[in-house]
Amino acid sequence: MVLSVLVVGHGSIAAWVADHVKDDQNLRIDYVLCRPGREDAARAAIPGAEAISDVSQLDNDVVDGDVDYALECAGHGGLAAHGPGLLERGIDLGVISIGAFSDPDISSALEQAAKASEAQIELLGGAIGAIDALAAARQGGLEEVTYIGRKPPAGWKGSAAENVLDLDGLNDAEVHFTGSAREAAQAYPKNANVAATVALAGLGLDHTKVTLVADPAMTGNRHVVEAKGAFGSFSFTIDGKALPGNPKSSALTAMSAVRALRNRAALIRI
Question: How far is the C-alpha of 163 from the C-alpha of 81, rounded, in Å?
Answer without folding.
Answer: 29
